Amino acid sequence: MTQADATPRHRIIIVGGGAGGLELAVKLGDCLGKPGKADITLVDRGRTHVWKPLLHQVAAGTLDSHADEIEYLALGRRHHFRFRQGEFTGLDRASKQIRLAPVRSLEGEILLPESSLPYDTLVFALGSQTNDFGTPGAREHSIMLDSPAAALHFHRKLIDASIRAQAGGPAAGQGRFTVAIIGGGATGVELAAELHMTARIMASFGLENLHPERDLKISIVDAAPRVLPLLPERVSSAVSRELRKLDIDLHTNEKVVEVSAEGVRMGSGKFIPSGLTVWAAGIKAPDFLRDIDGLETNRINQLVVDRTLRSTRDPSIYAMGDCAACPMDDSGKAMVPPRAQAAHQQALLLAKTIPRVLAGKPGLPFRYHDHGSLVSLGEYSTVGSLMGRVASGGVFIEGMFAKWMYWSLYKKHQVAINGMFRTWLATWVEAIDRMRNPRIKLH
């Protein structure tokens, strides 16, 4: 046995196969896994990846998640990292191990037992989940649109409601089916527009008793004074105009105090009857991260890291994306926003930092570059601002150019994972599928 064979390779575990975690696994696999400098393992509770900004399209049925999902095992084989399915349940920093829950089949059969995985470097890329702020009834009576499973659950309920409405006949009256969307951020407004478009397409397929202007009512509720409160006011105003053209009700400055099976009650006393309620307001990191094994966390469970994305209490643990509280600068007064572009930029940084640290060099500081924001309203419009800070706006864009820019964001993510050639092929397949299949998923 040679000396090289006797030396154990450095073990890197990435927990979370979202946009940032998957991009990091691909890049580390190519630069460290392929030459045998380290063993990279990606851990996720699911077997496939769907880009989170597309979940509103999955929910509305305008995107078939099975056509756009990426198989972790296949990607790992191509890019020299291992994939281990399992839900993260605990951390033992003393022995440098993570614990994973058993993996079960749909019938409840145990496929993989409860287990532990050792690490030398650990990266948390767990993303975020919806924050219901402890609102009574929110968990029981609304769908939290923060995972592919939740999006598919919403879509099934939407199709079921459409079939019931069709069977009820035109005499059932106005307001037969109402969707209440709690949260006027990007997810909420994009979902509202996609639902309106879905209802139009359903009517063309023969489900004429769920016409968007006559039989479907969509309401957006937000505690802020306007929708898209974190984006420039010009973007918010343009989106509001488009939504009102679609007869979508906007209830701003309204705090939800209770969600029930019948609808949504607000602090002002206003009540919105709802057949289907979606909660898309606020985010937090997973609850199990709160003070996990002594690591520093903030009030929304994010792991506190320094500007190199290293945790403040353990030099072998990093965090990135929505589950990390990373300062914008050395003052620590402002934090990096939980956005997809931040996770992408942090994945690029860690792909450079971790090899440097293994070589005995210091990590690189993260500098967030705000490239602006885009909001898609389905086929109706796309608006946004480019090349500017969120607070000051930037170059306002809308129309076909904005639609192309929004589409290119997803393509950029695909290129980061699959490379240019595979993305080019996938784009042609998508174009063919659009001609071959119905415009929405009807099951």
From TrEMBL:
**Which residues constitute the signal peptide according to the record?**
none
A Pfam family in this protein?
A: Pyr_redox_2
What name does this protein carry?
Answer: NAD(P)/FAD-dependent oxidoreductase
Originating organism = Niveibacterium microcysteis
Q: What are the UniProt keywords, alphabetically? A: FAD, Flavoprotein, NAD, Oxidoreductase
Note the InterPro entries from the entry.
Answer: FAD/NAD-bd_sf, FAD/NAD-binding_dom, NDH-2
Q: Does the keyword Ion transport apply?
A: no
* FAD/NAD(P)-binding domain sequence ranges: 11-347
